[in-house]
């Protein structure tokens, strides 16, 4: 027959094992989601930046446009701001991926038989709260970038005359404009998923 102390110890060990499994699962999901979507958004931004630089390089060769004015018009006004906010959002994604890696380390420490090496609940909650704050900041940055890119696309679509050839490069909707918007949308999705996972984990741990 087990003593109350042995029963309490087994219950505590089972609870710590369960918490470790949850932290490990959320940590891996966070790393794969944040890094995977971050890489996709980064590749889109690289194509957009490469296309932007290429347009700047060939702008002086556009017939009928002065060299100085052609260089400026080779890039879409406002698109650089969208790229900037998207890059900031990707940096925030890398930070949240690092926090997810910290959760994996916590899960590993919980499997250690030495109770002194177990992380404190306050330490785990602090990392989760930082992840939630970072997720909201990342969503805010990518929302700004996505709003800017969508504003550029909307202004171009409104400015395009119907049935008339367009010679002004700033009024043409190009693939790089769409890539910037898509990169920001992917960043918003990645931060949203990471924030939801952190909030759910924090609420679950709070009830334990």
Automatic annotation (TrEMBL):
- Show the stretches that span the lipid bilayer: 25-50, 79-101, 130-154, 178-205
Instruction: Write the record's keywords in alphabetical order, separated by commas.
Output: Membrane, Transmembrane, Transmembrane helix
Q: Which Pfam families match?
A: DUF3611
Signal sequence coordinates: none
Family annotation (PANTHER family): PROTEIN TIC 21, CHLOROPLASTIC
Its name, as the record gives it, is: DUF3611 family protein
> What organism, scientifically named, is this protein from?
Leptolyngbya boryana CZ1
